């Protein structure tokens, strides 16, 4: 079987990127996109050069969280150069699908991932944060195969239903010997959590809880307001924990 030439290009494109963090979950609706966006902004706030890539084919939403102006699009010069949004180098499947449904599957998904990763010129980045689609499908397998330095940050809510799906993702990642940074518990409603024990029993670090913030909806689309939320305070704390773990 011949090897797609785009595969060799991808790691060349990312050769000047220090770390690639894939924010993933086994289930949708856990706030994964918001955490990916918040993490990217918190890293930028610390002075790092950061890229944010939205690969959620089913429902890209980081452009809504960041309040992306409608006129913004990547520049073309020997590939695509991500626009700078709120200090982040930003690329999204949204640039190609708009608000239309994108019912991709199988080989189509692999081709789109290959194309986006091989044509995007990120330049020098300290961190590339990737908002992954939910689940354990082709996207997880492809990203792990195509990006040598991929690391996963897993997101769950306190719900047992959500964590049951997340457990399947963690099992898959461990079988592939992929680095798992840890798990963040999002939308926590109280001071105690059984999720910590469940997570650590799988051999995965439990990073911390993000308390449900009733005011977060008011900040969606306005990064300045987002920075002032309790949510971002919790994200900063989680980032400090992650940094100390390394």
What report would you give on this structure?
The longest helix is centred in the C-terminal third of the chain and has 16 residues, at 160-175. This protein has one domain (5-245): P-loop containing nucleotide triphosphate hydrolases (Rossmann fold, 3-Layer(aba) Sandwich), CATH 3.40.50.300. It is 41% helix and 22% strand. The protein is built from eleven helices and ten strands. With 246 residues, the chain is of the alpha/beta class. The chain has helices at 5-13, 32-45, 62-66, 94-97, 107-119, 138-146, 160-175, 195-201, 216-219, 223-227, 230-245; strands spanning 17-24, 50-54, 75-76, 80-81, 84-85, 88-92, 125-131, 150-156, 179-188, 206-211. The strands form two sheets. Strands 5-6-2-7-1-8-9-10 form an eight-stranded mixed β-sheet, with helices on both faces. Strands 3-4 form a two-stranded antiparallel sheet.
Short description:
By secondary structure, this protein is α/β, with parallel strands linked by helices. It contains 11 helices and 10 strands.
């Amino acid at each position: 079987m011949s090897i797609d030439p785009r595969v060799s290009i991808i790691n060349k494109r990312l050769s000047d990127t220090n770390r690639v963090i894939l924010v993933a979950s086994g289930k949708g609706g856990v706030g994964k996109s918001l955490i990916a966006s918040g993490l990217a902004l918190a890293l930028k706030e610390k002075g790092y050069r950061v890229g944010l890539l939205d690969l959620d084919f089913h429902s890209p939403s980081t452009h809504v969280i960041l309040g992306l102006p409608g006129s913004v699009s990547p520049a073309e010069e020997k590939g695509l150069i991500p626009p700078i949004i709120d200090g982040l180098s930003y690329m999204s499947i949204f640039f190609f699908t708009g608000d239309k449904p994108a019912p991709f599957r199988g080989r189509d998904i692999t081709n789109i991932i290959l194309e986006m990763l091989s044509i995007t010129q990120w330049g020098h980045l300290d961190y590339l944060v990737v908002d992954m689609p939910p689940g354990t499908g082709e996207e997880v397998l492809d990203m792990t195969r195509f990006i040598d330095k991929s690391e996963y940050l897993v997101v769950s809510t306190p719900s047992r239903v959500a964590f049951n799906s997340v457990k399947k993702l963690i099992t898959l990642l461990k079988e592939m010997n992929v680095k798992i940074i840890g798990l963040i518990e999002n939308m926590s409603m109280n001071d105690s959590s059984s999720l910590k024990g469940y997570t650590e029993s799988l051999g995965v670090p439990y990073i911390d809880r993000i308390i449900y913030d009733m005011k977060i909806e008011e900040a969606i689309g306005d990064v300045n307001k987002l920075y002032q939320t309790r949510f971002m305070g919790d994200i900063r704390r989680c980032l400090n924990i992650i940094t100390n773990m390394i």
